[in-house]
Amino acid sequence: MHTHHSAAQPLTEYGLSALALLAGALLALMIHCNSRLAAYGNPLTASWLAHAIGMLAALLLWKALRQTRPDAGRPPRWAYLGGVPGALTVALAAIAVNSPLALSGTLALGMVGQVLFGLLSDRFGLFGMPRRPLRLNDALALPLVLSGCAILIFGA
Q: Cα 77 to the chain's mean position, in Å?
């Protein structure tokens, strides 16, 4: 019996897009769960619990999927600070979701923040990202996203 081992195929544009959509759905689910938890206590406790459970899940995934990459080198020191914005996201979203913004308004405005930070990161090469000049579609995306937010929050 012959087994064929092939090198891992890189994800296609469709596969990467599907992963991004899944990440967005999981973010919405995370924010909803954490806001419900915060409603029974407070946003800080909800954030601590969410990150403790997330750490356990990450450790289990790391153990299951661990691979050695001797050529990877060491990450920059600032890369270890990723948990700080994550913790702030959980706590601030738990506050915003339990407000008149609700889940959809919180996620919509969060997406505006992501788009703005993404455009700035692309333009200036922040945090080691490759620099990319802004294009016309970048300039058009922001008002469209803002318009969608306004419709979600204030109605049509």
A: 20
**pLDDT tens sequence across 88-133:** 888 888 888 888 888 888 988 988 898 899 999 999 999 888 999 9
Helices 102-124 and 136-154 pack at an angle, to 10 degrees, of: 160
Burial class (CB in 10 A: 0-12, 13-18, 19+), 96: buried
The Cα–Cα gap between 149 and 156 comes to: 11
Q: Which two tokens stand for residue 126?
A: 């922040």
- Model pLDDT for residues 31-75, shown as the tens digit of each residue: 899 888 888 888 888 888 988 998 999 899 888 887 766 667 788
In sequence order, which residues have a C-beta less than 8 Å from that of residue 91 and are 6 or more positions away?
43, 44, 46, 47
- 99 contact partners, CB below 8 Å, separation of at least 6: 106
> Residue holding tokens 């703005």?
116
CA distances from 146 to 55, 109, 114, 132 (A): 34, 8, 12, 22
